[in-house]
Write the structure tokens for this entry.
Amino acid sequence: MAYSEKVIDHYQNPKNVGTLDKSSKNVGTGLVGAPECGDVMRLQIEVDDATGMITDAKFKTFGCGSAIASSSLATEWLKGKSIDEALTVDNMDFVEELNLPPVKIHCSVLAEDAIKAAINDYRVKNGKEAIQFDESVVH
Amino acid sequence: MLKLPIYLDNNATTPMDPKVLEAMTPYFLEHYGNAASRNHPFGWEAEEAVDYAREQVAKLIGADPKEIIFTSGATEGDNLAIKGVYEMYASKGNHIITATTEHKAVLDTCKHIEKTGGEVTYLQVKRDGLIDLKELEAAIKPTTILIAIMYANNEIGTIQPIKEISAIAKKHGVLLFSDAVQAVGKIPVDVNKDGIDLMAFTAHKMYGPKGIGALYVRRKNPRVKVTAQMDGGGHERGMRSGTLNVPGIVGFGKACELCRLEMESDTKRISILRDKLETELMKLEEAYINGSTEHRLPHVTNISFKHVEGEGLLMGFNKNIALSSGSACTSASLEPSYVLKALGLGDDLAHSSLRFGLGRFTDEEQIDYTVKAISETVLKLRDMSPLWEMYKEGIDLDSIEWAAH
């Protein structure tokens, strides 16, 4: 299967690989997927309390090139966005931007789930309720 | 000078030996007769060429030329052997014994037989990929007509104890069929010494052309018959109708002859390269060899690199190195290899494996390049693997409740 150039570029030069301090109150961590399914994504966001803006984002991903590219792209998109804006990111945005083929749509779903999980982790840490999301379609 | 890409997927198919092509060419252009045409020189030439090739093929496996039935390949051979025995010996019984690590052409044929009223026992394999002989013997019943066990596995190279299996089969009066695609031409296979009654193999895994293979069908002690699966002109002693693929058969014969003559030197050279590849890659942390290292084909290794995912790993170098991943994520299915799972590997290790198949044209420079490229990619991907980070922090990954999707 041929990967799109954008997937290859993210795979070869992934953006924002790394780890933020998950014990920090400003950091939200989303860990989604499962080793037995062949992908695990960990997405972390650092939020400025005062402005509600995402100031930093990091990822680490175990998975195929599309999973790595989706999470790398997610960190790029999240930086500089507000939490509310981040919540509007949809899995189809990844599919379109990275030209993911149908068999790789689950990678985009995982990236969307990782964003939501990171935001909820941040909310819960800061005394807010977790947002209830609809079950993802493709799982 | 190193030429890229490097081909290390010889279990999938092998390049043709130029000598094979050379032998075939005249049978496309000048000697194009139908081997069944008895009335003119074109037919005679073709028949003579087929007879000669049949001898070359038979000699490689210690068979009589009359015991060679040419097929389109091993998938057809597997089908013909299993369905053919099932139908021919229906009055004797309807039970077949096979193993979970067999090729799909065997497993799916068995599934088909189950749908038509047959009974199939699928033996589990041990951690090293070998079947348990006691379990095999215990599975035999009065209705058992066939044991179908492969000679060597296509993903991990594990060689089954065929002599011991055939002794058990003989003791109970059951026929033994072996899919020997990966073994024939690579290691000594002798249908008499090994006690095999039916055996499928194919040219394109041994430097011959695609689209031609053979089914060995024993003629003496016992005389074995299979019901034809294709009706027609009654070629190949009535077991496989269809105009013979003369150029393919000629190439197959030549490939068998080359394998017979070069097996010893090829094996020696290739196994040294395989061992070098394996030793170097095993220097990486958390790398595991899958399947028996003792009972194994000399040109195969299958290694899991824990906490990196196979498809992601392949992407790091698959422009330059042709390899296959034990993870089938590259196809529409997200299931990891059923062979590796049958060994008892967790999904994580099964998802992290690479299969290396070296061949006649593999050289040391290619192996050195491969070791370097794979090692670098594994390290790079582990740097971005959350599982590797957790492992390094001492977190037990099994203790985490993963949201399986």
Remarks:
- Chain B has two domains: 6-11+263-383, 18-259.
- The first helix of chain B runs from residue 18 to 24.
- Residues 328-332 of chain B have pLDDT under 50 and may be disordered.
